[in-house]
Write a structure and sequence with these properties.
With 122 residues, the chain is an alpha+beta fold. 18% of the residues lie in helices and 36% in strands.
Length: 122
């Protein structure tokens, strides 16, 4: 019986040490900056609503529905765009259809975006 009690604290210590590893899900999209997480697909097309557009930084802030191909939940986030997407063609409030593609640096970027029939492609 004495050995059983001495194993319990060791087992608890081992569990506490590995808890952060057990809690992390490599396919989960975390917050606004998780778009570099591994996913099941290299590309996905979806829709969204633009909130902010920063042509100088090459980013947009938008709300998109869940993207099952990437394992992303519905969220509002900042996303970079490739330099071939002309952000001056868009305005806050625009409903857009866009394609995300995983780059060599493991970051997703918008490579194609259209609004009201306008298409800008990478």
């Amino acid at each position: 019986m004495k050995k059983t009690f001495s194993l319990i604290p060791m087992a608890c210590a081992a569990l506490l040490a590995t808890a952060p590893l057990l809690a992390s899900d490599p396919n989960q999209h975390h917050g606004h900056h998780g778009h570099t997480m591994p996913a099941s697909s290299q590309e996905a097309t979806t829709t969204g609503t633009l909130h902010q557009i920063d042509p100088e930084a090459g980013t947009v802030n938008l709300t998109h529905p869940a993207i099952p191909e990437l394992g992303w939940p519905e969220m509002t986030m900042d996303l970079p765009v490739t330099n071939r997407v002309d952000l001056t063609s868009f305005s806050p409030g625009d409903e857009v259809k866009f394609t995300l593609r995983l780059g060599r640096d493991q970051q997703y970027r918008i490579v194609e975006m259209e609004v009201k029939g306008l298409r800008v492609r990478d």
